[in-house]
């Protein structure tokens, strides 16, 4: 929770927005929101964190409100930070949605139109139902293309997103710290950190240790 809160309160757009009169934009009647209570709890927490002279803030009140609407985050068990951040952004968006009555919107096919025109149309449809500080700062849209294998017709859509999951770069090596004992009894053991293949063997470690560039710890 701490890492998610720190990311949001140090986003300049959010810090300015919640230190101003954000209550005017709370959507009290939104059935998809938290009756404005999540936005109020987060706004009060942010103001305390940015208050002059404050050195320590315990977010107990905010955590209690969060647990009311998301019991999975109650207690003090370990949870995934991205899951909490996703729930928090969704909840803040619905609590601060400027659209009071969401209209029915039907998207048209691209039909060969320029991507810029189709993207603007899809974004306008999205804004007609979702308009908040969260949308302004955190949301965008990506292009999806689907080709029919029979008639080769291309269906182009632009879908909104708020967060993207990116894979971590994989590596074929790992670092190891080993202690080398010399056959010379007068030499002291040396600890060295070396890089070896993940699926390597002892000979790979020995080969690296023979490298004169390996520097032992002092």
UniProtKB/TrEMBL annotation:
Signal peptide residue numbers: none
Superkingdom of source: Eukaryota
Span of domain USP: 1-218
Any Pfam family matching the protein: UCH
Listed GO MF terms: cysteine-type deubiquitinase activity
A GO biological-process term: protein deubiquitination
Protein name per Swiss-Prot or TrEMBL: USP domain-containing protein
Organism the protein comes from: Kalanchoe fedtschenkoi (Lavender scallops)
